[in-house]
Design a protein that fits this description.
- The protein contains nine helices and 19 strands.
- By secondary structure, it is α/β, with parallel strands linked by helices.
- The chain folds into two domains: 175 residues, FAD/NAD(P)-binding domain; 149 residues, D-Amino Acid Oxidase, Chain A, domain 2 (2-Layer Sandwich), CATH 3.30.9.
- Strands 7-2-1-11-18-17 form a six-stranded mixed sheet, covered by helices on one side.
- The two termini are 21 Å apart.
- It binds flavin-adenine dinucleotide.
- The site of flavin-adenine dinucleotide has 41 residues, from α1, β2, β3, β12 and β16.
């Protein structure tokens, strides 16, 4: 089997297939160890190595999945994503990757947000899953975060992890399982008589099956572009921010404030504060005006303080906002559309990929993230 892409999706897929007895080669055009550029500053990070490290299952999408696929499918997908969190936890702990179970807070920066979450809460209550979220009052969010956030939700089965350590552990586990990892850019993947061919700059690789695990660059490939768009998301890390900005290190809470400015906030293990949001790549030392405004309102202490690092990377978002796994051809599979929630979802998609590429009976094959679009192609140009 050949996997194009050495991020979480590619490496999880490779690992599961290799453990099932297949010979696997991963083709990835990102060098390892990562160059400084990929780890610290700039606008071209490798998302699997440099994300915010917040792990969550898919319950936030419950109402969206219900609307499209029905209640039973929504429950099945969200429960499968809970199991994926558990799989990642077990792996991280076995490999010695720092993993911290936390309660994830979702707090409003605008009253309209809470109205949207009410739909989610109602759907969950109606579906018998009302215990997934706990309501958080504005007082509690302000007390825990030290900033003027509104009311929100809290949910368990979440965690934080060191993303770079997790990717490194996945690479090590792949190598240990006999996976070959080749550093090369793939230009094209094509189905041929009884298998597939990966066409590189100077070389070709033949395999029985191929898996496209391209991350944000999937949106630039000919066959997948119709169903995915790529967006930038950024992270800034500030040092020396004390108790004037919570969460304090021993009161770690993950915070999502789903407005234009901010999606992530958490304390890192070294005490630095990580803030992240959506938006275009910026000069590494200069937050955008929008970011500055958001910070001024929520965390004035950060406004004139230069971040230790500020970088952005691509995430890919599907039409239905769901992670997607499918096949363009019986031997050519793809796994994409993680919408910035890739740490747990990548494990879920990889389980489905491994069943397909291993031509095994599909236990997970009926989940709503299995793409029913008739995407047919026997040749794919890659970005
Ligand atoms: C700033 C930021 C913060 C984030 N925060 C979180 C978070 O807190 N929690 C969370 O769950 N998710 C988060 N995410 C999302 C998460 O990082 C991604 O969903 C996940 O890493 C995607 O994994 P992937 O394997 O699909 O893609 P990637 O990590 O993008 O890997 C894609 C791989 O494909 C390779 N590739 C692509 N095209 C080719 C080609 N033609 N030839 C050879 N190789 C190719 C690349 O070299 C790379 O190795 C964040 C993302 C960003 C950018």
């Amino acid at each position: 089997m050949a996997v194009v892409g050495g991020g979480y999706v590619g490496l999880w897929s490779a690992l599961l297939c290799a453990r099932a007895g297949q010979a696997v080669t991963v083709v990835s055009d990102r060098p390892w160890p990562l160059r400084d550029r990929d780890r610290s500053r700039g606008s071209d990070v490798l998302p699997s190595a440099a994300n915010a490290g917040m792990v969550f299952p898919l319950w936030l999408d419950f109402d969206n999945v219900w609307e499209r696929y029905g209640q039973a499918d929504a429950v099945a997908l969200c429960r499968a994503s809970d199991a994926a969190v558990e799989e990642v936890r077990a792996f991280a702990e076995l490999q010695g990757c720092p993993w911290r179970g936390v309660e994830h807070l979702l707090v409003a920066t605008h009253p309209r947000q809470f109205a949207l979450w009410q739909v989610l809460l109602d759907s969950l209550a109606w579906g018998g899953e009302g215990a997934v979220f706990r309501r958080v009052t504005a007082d509690e969010s302000q007390e825990r975060l030290g900033a003027p956030f509104g009311a929100g939700l809290a949910f368990g089965n979440c965690a934080t992890v060191d993303p770079h350590a997790l990717l490194g552990a996945l690479r090590d586990a792949c190598l240990e399982a006999g996976v070959e990892i080749v550093e090369a850019h793939a230009r094209e993947v094509a189905a041929v008589d009884d298998g597939v061919e990966i066409v590189g700059e100077d070389d070709r690789l033949a395999a029985g099956h191929a898996v496209l695990a391209l991350g944000g660059r999937a949106a630039g490939s000919s066959a997948l572009a119709r169903h995915l768009r790529a967006e930038f998301t950024w992270i800034g890390v500030w040092e020396g921010v004390g108790a004037e900005v919570r969460p304090a290190p021993d009161d770690l809470a993950c915070v999502s404030a789903l407005d234009e400015q901010m999606h992530y906030l958490r304390r890192l293990e070294d005490g630095a504060l990580l803030v992240g949001g959506s938006g275009p790549p910026r000069r590494p030392d200069e937050p955008s005006d929008e970011v500055r405004d958001g910070l001024r309102r929520l965390f004035p202490a950060l406004v004139d303080r230069p971040p230790r690092t500020l970088y952005s990377g691509l995430i890919e978002v599907s039409e239905g906002l769901l992670p997607l796994v499918g096949s363009l051809h019986p031997r050519l599979h793809y796994a994409s559309g993680l919408s910035g929630m890739g740490i747990a979802s990548s494990r879920l998609l990889a389980g489905i990929v491994a069943e397909r590429a291993g031509e095994q009976e599909e236990e997970l094959g009926a989940l709503a993230c299995v793409d029913e679009h008739e995407l047919e192609a026997d040749r794919v140009d890659l970005a």
